[in-house]
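hiii so um. not sure if this is the right channel but i have a protein structure encoded as tokens and i wanna go backwards to a sequence. like what aa goes where. can anyone help
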């Protein structure tokens, strides 16, 4: 008998067909609405594998409903939506999809950096609204990117891919990481700094760490107070790492110059959110990895991770050590 799996969002027919070769598939049939918790609570009871998205909160209560669950395969690199420690205690593997989205997410990080620095969105609205009367010496002037210093907080795969892009733009690259990465320093010509110093010297600050209890509110009032007045903060990792109240205050009081954000404390971002009243913020709806090619790769990798575990094969994307 094939193992039973549940997929928490409608995926493409190709990937469903692929998974169906190995598994007995049930799926939430909507593409743009997350599965209601009540339904997931029922579905999880009998399944062997769960294919989840970052919008599903797989907490200990939900995990406790499962009788046969062996794997939760998250179609994302981040897995803070899953209580992976609790899953580990229950012998349930949790897998993620790193690697395939690295370059795509670094591209969006750079796109936000450039859009915020050169006021691209503001300029486009200006034009579309019919405000373009003439060329003016200081009209819509922004910040230079070339020659500036970029501070990368979290030099993982995506952080290194951003560093590489920054080097191509003739930027000076500094980084902070839990531990120093001597090889990466040499390879990408980047310099390690303590967090405080990074915040003081950087023109661009990119938040690239996973969201954990340690990184919650990593960038808050005190951190903004250390930044340069021309600093631009970019966050494409997870919302809770940057305290939004502190960010809003830093932007309104011109403590910093601008921000580019793809992730928020609460998603979807409420349209009444104060950040939306500010012209010096560029906002996107959590689309870091959203290229057609990469999303297809992530779905395939998440499917393979789930199938591997269900078939008893080793899988290198297990993030919690269930063998302990
Ligand atoms: C997206 O945010 C991911 O973690 O893959
Ligand atoms: C994510 O893949 C990271 O390590 O940056």
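sure thing!! here u go:
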């Amino acid at each position: 008998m094939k193992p039973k799996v549940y997929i928490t969002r409608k995926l493409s027919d190709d990937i469903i067909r692929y998974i169906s070769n190995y598994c007995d598939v049930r799926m939430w049939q909507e593409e743009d609405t997350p599965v209601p918790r009540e339904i997931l609570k029922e579905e999880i009871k009998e399944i062997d594998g769960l294919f989840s998205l970052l919008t599903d909160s797989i907490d200990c209560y939900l995990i406790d409903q499962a009788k046969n669950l062996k794997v939760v395969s998250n179609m994302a690199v981040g897995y803070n939506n899953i209580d992976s420690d609790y899953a580990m205690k229950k012998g349930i593997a949790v897998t993620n999809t790193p690697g395939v989205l690295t370059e795509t997410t670094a591209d969006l990080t750079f796109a936000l950096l450039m859009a915020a620095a050169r006021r691209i969105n503001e300029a486009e609205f200006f034009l579309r609204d019919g405000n373009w009367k003439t060329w003016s010496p200081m009209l819509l002037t922004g910040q230079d990117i070339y020659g500036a210093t970029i501070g990368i907080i979290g030099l993982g795969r995506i952080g290194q891919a951003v560093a590489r892009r920054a080097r191509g733009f003739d930027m000076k690259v500094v980084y902070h990481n839990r531990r120093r990465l001597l090889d990466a320093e040499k390879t990408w010509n980047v310099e390690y700094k303590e967090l405080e110093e990074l915040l003081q010297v950087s023109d661009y600050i990119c938040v690239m760490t996973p969201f954990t209890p340690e990184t919650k509110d990593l960038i808050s009032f005190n951190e903004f107070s250390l930044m340069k007045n021309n600093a631009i903060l970019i966050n494409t990792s997870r919302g809770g790492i940057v305290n939004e109240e502190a960010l809003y205050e830093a932007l309104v009081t011109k403590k910093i110059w601008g921000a580019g954000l793809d992730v928020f404390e609460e998603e979807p971002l409420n349209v009444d959110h104060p950040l939306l009243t500010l012209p010096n913020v560029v906002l996107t709806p959590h689309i870091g990895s959203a290229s057609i090619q990469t999303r297809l790769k992530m779905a395939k990798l998440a499917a393979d991770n789930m199938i591997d575990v269900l078939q008893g094969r080793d899988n290198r994307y297990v993030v919690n050590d269930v063998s302990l």
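oh and The longest strand covers residues 149-153.
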